[in-house]
Sequence to fold (290 residues):
Amino acid sequence: MQHRIRTISPTRLRAYDDCPLQYRLRYVDRAPRVDSPASLAGQAVHAALEHVFTVKRRWRRFSADEACEVYDDVWDERLPPGASSDASAAEFEQAYASGLAALRLYLEQVAPGVSPHLIEHRFRFDVPGLPVQVVGTVDLIDSAGVVIDYKTSLTPYAASYLDRDLQLRCYAIGYAAFRAGSRVRPGELPAPFFVPTVRVDVLVRGDPPSVQQFERKFGRADLEDFAARASDIIAGIEAEAFEPYWTQAAGDPDPSTCRRCAYGRTCEASLARRELLENGGEDGDEKEEE
Fold:
């Protein structure tokens, strides 16, 4: 029996694109997830920046100390039970400290220059050939119409990140459809004229912390590529093609996707879990998180 879906989000598209098995565990099986140190730091940073830009949009000034309090509140609320006392305590402490340091750097170097227009902006659009609508939320759109997504990572992103990322293309189409309004016919992609510039700000939790910024303007070919890949993903979901991502990879499989997955330590197909067992129970290096 096929797994039918009614809408698809950028998060779901990216989850399947990263690893079809991860998608099944999260959205079909609804398997319980436990936040990793990486994902918890990412959630806390995201909440703090949402607070900052909401304040800036209303009053034009923000308090870095208040933003850090939001970071702390999210951390305390979502810290997994036992995380402060088990063998992973050091990992959570390191993630907390490095996430906070990266946040403070961003608040000092980048946030003052951002002029927010829309925050957590919802969008909905049709794509040619897709049987369902795409629905999602953009982190931030500034006063110049630039779509901004912010992420955290332990290591720097590759310069080619935006060449393949589905999420930012989806955000660009979503905001373009919103701007174009009735000038986009149902089921058609917006004209390139309406497609905004997109930017991803990466808060790198290294020692020392740093901030990367990648910016791009997507053209018609990029939008058509998104439509084709999204169509393939939806077909895979409905056909229940949920093999681990590394079974389709050429050469040696890369375990980084498993390391940043919420099921990386429990999934039987996880390369990160395999590393863990081979190392006698010690974790491999963390790579990247949302």
User: Anything to note?
Assistant: Confidence is low (pLDDT under 50) at residues 282-290. Strands lie at 7-8, 116-125, 133-142, 147-153, 197-204, 210-217, 288-289. The chain has ten helices and seven strands. Residues 34-113 form one domain.
